[in-house]
Amino acid sequence: MLKCQTAGLLAKMEVISPFSCPTCRLLFWVEARKRLSKTKNAPGSKLGVNPTSIDTVVVGTGSEVKMKPGQQLHVVNQLYPYTVQFKEDPTGSHGGSKRPRESASEDRENQREAQKTKAAKQTEKVSVPVSHGDATNTSEGVGHWSQGLKTSMQDPKMQVYKDDKVVVIKDKYPKARYHWLVLPWQSIPSLKALREEHCDLVKHMQQVADQMVEQCPDASSLRFRTGYHAIPSMSHVHLHVISQDFDSPCLKNKKHWNSFTTDYFIESHDLFQMLEANGRVTVKEGASELLKLPLRCHVCRKDIPTIPALKEHLKSHFPR
Ligand code: AMP
Ligand code: ZN
């Protein structure tokens, strides 16, 4: 188990600089640098007035909290999350779980990123002392490809909008001309973890998604959908905002196609209603079978034999 003696982090924002989203040609305000922080770790003491929290639970002044692998440490009102990184991997394992879908090249990209992130994080200024003993490193811990969104959401180059509750990033492997992901700052690993108390947050995510669509210069000519994958491959709850042209070289296979054009894609509004009514989200059994359905055009419902033929067909619906 890791002992966190971190209270006492002072952080302040640097200059806010304008960031122009190349696809949207819109100006969004994002922070240039989030962590201009001078840290002075004084065990058991907290300097300044900004609350430090672990996975949204505030660490009181003078308190000491034990952190678990994968938990997020936030300084300054949950605006500046840090993920705890082990300096040593007591198990020596690098994770063995397989990614359920996505192309192999996307996997490799993510693995390379994960390695880079891991190396970079080991030299980060904020380090947490590791006590040997009961520390564990799950196969899907920090550095695993499935954690990639947590890295991207902190990256100013990926961010196109943010407020105190959510951040919007560009999807790194966009499956259409416009493809964004809305993520809460709050650490919610998956749809399964959603509860009634998250209703307001989920609604806010939807509102931000709607705003993104409204501000898109091609909103009048393109249709958009906003929703969640029934069985996401990436950790940390994320709402897809995607234009329905599916005109992208990253859309490569049947799984990609069916994940956005069948009931595998759960409309944000439907998810909200489920959460409001039942206090949780349940995914229908057999959802993964939807990914194996034959290719069918989502506009005219025509069956198309292959992905290249489908891409050619889509040009007739969505000329450039
Ligand atoms: P899913 O988990 O199936 O809902 O989808 C995850 C989405 O995240 C996919 O659309 C990927 O293209 C995208 N993605 C994968 N890795 C990253 C990353 N490191 N940064 C941003 N987007 C990513
Ligand atoms: Zn068609």
TrEMBL record:
Annotated Gene Ontology cellular components are:
nucleolus; nucleoplasm
User: Where is the motif (Histidine triad motif)?
Assistant: 236-240
Alphabetically, the GO molecular function entries are: DNA 5'-adenosine monophosphate hydrolase activity; DNA-3'-diphospho-5'-guanosine diphosphatase activity; double-stranded RNA binding; mismatched DNA binding; single-strand break-containing DNA binding; single-stranded DNA binding; zinc ion binding
Q: Which residues form the HIT domain?
A: 146-251
Query: Per the record, which residues fall in region Disordered?
Result: 86-148
Sequence ranges of Basic and acidic residues compositional bias: 99-124
Q: Which reaction does it catalyse?
A: a 3'-end 2'-deoxyribonucleotide-3'-diphospho-5'-guanosine-DNA + H2O = a 3'-end 2'-deoxyribonucleotide 3'-phosphate-DNA + GMP + 2 H(+); a 5'-end adenosine-5'-diphospho-5'-ribonucleoside-2'-deoxyribonucleotide-DNA + H2O = a 5'-end 5'-phospho-ribonucleoside-2'-deoxyribonucleotide-DNA + AMP + 2 H(+); a 5'-end adenosine-5'-diphospho-5'-2'-deoxyribonucleoside-DNA + H2O = a 5'-end 5'-phospho-2'-deoxyribonucleoside-DNA + AMP + 2 H(+)
Q: Alphabetically list the UniProt keywords.
A: DNA damage, DNA repair, DNA-binding, Hydrolase, Metal-binding, Nucleus, Zinc, Zinc-finger
Its EC number is: 3.6.1.71, 3.6.1.72
Record GO biological process:
single strand break repair
Q: Where in the cell is it found?
A: Nucleus, Nucleolus; Nucleus, Nucleoplasm
Does this entry carry the keyword Iron? no
What job does this protein perform? DNA-binding protein involved in single-strand DNA break repair, double-strand DNA break repair and base excision repair. Resolves abortive DNA ligation intermediates formed either at base excision sites, or when DNA ligases attempt to repair non-ligatable breaks induced by reactive oxygen species. Catalyzes the release of adenylate groups covalently linked to 5'-phosphate termini, resulting in the production of 5'-phosphate termini that can be efficiently rejoined.
Protein's name in the database: Aprataxin
Organism field: Scophthalmus maximus
